[in-house]
Fold this sequence. Notes:
Elements (H helix, E strand, L loop, with lengths): L1 E5 L6 E10 L2 E10 L2 H15 L5 H11 L4 E2 L4 E9 L3 E8 L10
Helix pairs in contact: 1-2
Amino acid sequence: xxxxxxxxxxxxxxxxxxxxxxxxxxxxxxxxxxxxxxxxxxxxxxxxxxxxxxxxxxxxxxxxxxxxxxxxxxxxxxxxxxxxxxxxxxxxxxxxxxxxxxxxxxx
Length: 107
């Protein structure tokens, strides 16, 4: 199954092929993306920290910056948080239904 992520202003977009969906955690591969230069730089910084096993405040800061784009899932009343990127293509994120309690399997 595919999900399309967009930021609140619809300037950033990513199409994700979902590998697994368990609870509120979605993991998958980005099939395509159109990010501005600033977001690509943040993702690159994040990826470098993940690859070098950096943890702590710096990692939290980059994650907060990525989450600050207010990602949503197109066609769903879901917001995306805890957005993580691994080697740019492999990502994971958590979802929260904005209007009612989330139930597993609503994809």
